[in-house]
Amino acid sequence: MNWGGWDNFFAMGGHAFYVWGSYAATAVLIAAEVYLLKARTRAAHTAITRNGSAA
Amino acid sequence: MNWFKYSSPQSFFPLAGALVPWFGFAAALLAAAGLYIGFFVAPTDATQGESYRIIFIHVPAAWMSMFIYLVMAFWGAMALAFNTRLSGMMASALAPTGALFTFVALWTGALWGRPTWGTYWVWDARLTSELILLFLYFGFMALHAAIDDPRRADKAAAVLALVGVVNIPIIYFSVKWWNTLHQGASVSLTKAPTMAATMFAGMMIMALAFWMYSIAAALARTRCIILERERSSEWVIEYARNLK
Q: Is the ipTM value over 0.85, yes or no?
C-alpha cells in the first residue's frame, strides 16, 4: 500500500474493524494454544515426578 | 536409516522435542515476512480496498483446516490398520490445531464477508460445509475424551475421522458444484493465480508459516500425550527425574 502514516495504516481504508478483528482473533488463539501447550507439558511433568517419587 | 524406529513413542519423543523449536522458529520468521509483504508490499485491491488483506490469514487458515483433517484421518487409519500407539497419538494431537484453523477460517471469513457481501454469514455450501468441519473436529475430540481407555478412544475417534473425510471434497468443490456467494478458487494447480504477484507471494508465505506452526504445535502436543499415557513407564520416569 502507499504509505500515508501510521494513522492511515491503522484505519485500513475504513475497514479497520474487519481487518484488525481478523488478525487480533488469530493472534489471540495462537497465543492461547501455545500457552495451553506449555501448561499441559508442565502438568505432565509434575504428574510424573509425583508418580515416580511415590513408586 | 530405519524409519520404523520412530514409530515407538520412546524414540519419537526426543526427535519431536528436537524438531519443535526449529518449526516454531521457521513459523515466526515466515509469519514476519508474510505479514510484511501482506501489509507493506502488496498493493491496495482495486475493488475491495484494504479489507482484502484478510486474505493473508483467511485462505491459509482454510487450507490448513482441510489439510490437517486429512492428515488426522490418515493417522487414524494407521491406528486402525496397524494398531500402532503413536498413530493414534498423532491424530489426537492434530485435532485441536485443526479446529483452531477451522475457527479462524470461519471468523475471518465472517469479518471479510461483512464489508464485501454485506453479511457476516450465509448458509451457502462453502460456509456450511466448513462449519460442519469444525463440528467434526469437536466431535472427534469429544468422542476421544468420552472413552476412558486411550487405545479404544483412538480407534473410535479414528472411525469418526475417516467417515468425516467425505466432507473435505465437499468443502473444496462446493464453489463449483453449487451456486455460492463464496467466490471460486483464485489459486489452483492448473492455472496461473488470478491475483497480483505480491498478493500471491504474501499468501503463500503465510500458508507456509501456518504449516510450520501446525507441525510445531502437533509435535509439542504429541509429546504431552506420550508423557500422559506412558507416565508409569521406566523411561518416562527417568526423563522426568533428569529434568530437575
A: yes
Q: What domain range is A39 assigned to?
A: 27-55
Residue A38 within any structural domain of the chain: yes
Q: Is residue A33 part of a domain?
A: yes
- Are A52 and B61 inside 8 Å of each other by CB? no
**Half-sphere CA count of B115, side-chain side, radius 13 A:** 21
Cα Rg of chain A (Å, integer): 21
Question: Please, are residues B202 and B41 in contact by the beta-carbon 8 Å criterion?
Answer: yes
List, for residues A3-55, the tens digit of each pLDDT value.
778 888 888 988 999 999 999 999 999 999 999 999 999 999 998 887 655 44
Q: What are phi and psi of B49, to 5 degrees?
A: 70, -135
Name every chain B residue with its beta carbon within 8 A of the beta carbon of A34. Answer: 217
Query: In total, how many domains does chain A have?
Result: 1
Whether the Cβ atoms of residue B227 and residue B150 lie closer than 8 Å to each other:
no
Residue A21 included in any domain: no
- The domain segmentation of chain B, as residue ranges, is 19-243
B231 Cβ partners below 8 Å, 6+ apart?
A44, A47, A48, A51, B237
Is B240–A45 a contact, with Cβ atoms under 8 angstroms apart? yes
Q: Is A50 within a domain?
A: yes
What is the rounded end-to-end Cα distance, in angstroms, of chain B? 33
